[in-house]
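hey
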């Protein structure tokens, strides 16, 4: 199923915010399931998907994770949790409209 959104010029909402609300219930379920596979002291990678942001919000109770991400919003969510996680932002081609970085292998 294809979902289309008509965005008027005066519309100021970030497209990433729209994307994060599409299928939000399913993304929340995925995040709840995924969190059980992440052990304390693990190293994980969260891509630039909005589902990864749902997962990031659930990492606050985990201990000493090393997290790599290509998404500015995900990095911001993790940083605001003020826990003992080590957060690394993977460099690459910056795409500000999506608040992400594309590494060469994802072109």
């Amino acid at each position: 199923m294809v979902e289309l959104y008509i965005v008027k010029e005066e519309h100021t909402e970030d497209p990433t915010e729209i994307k994060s609300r599409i299928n939000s219930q399913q993304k929340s379920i995925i995040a709840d399931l995924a969190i059980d596979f992440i052990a304390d002291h693990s190293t994980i990678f969260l891509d630039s998907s909005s589902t990864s942001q749902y997962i990031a919000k659930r990492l606050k109770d985990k201990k000493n994770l090393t997290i790599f991400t290509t998404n500015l919003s995900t990095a911001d969510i993790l940083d605001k949790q003020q826990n003992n996680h080590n957060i690394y932002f993977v460099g690459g081609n910056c795409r500000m409209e999506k608040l992400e970085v594309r590494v060469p292998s994802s072109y």
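The chain is about 35% helix and 15% strand. Residues 15-106 form a domain with the Rossmann fold fold (CATH 3.40.50.1360).
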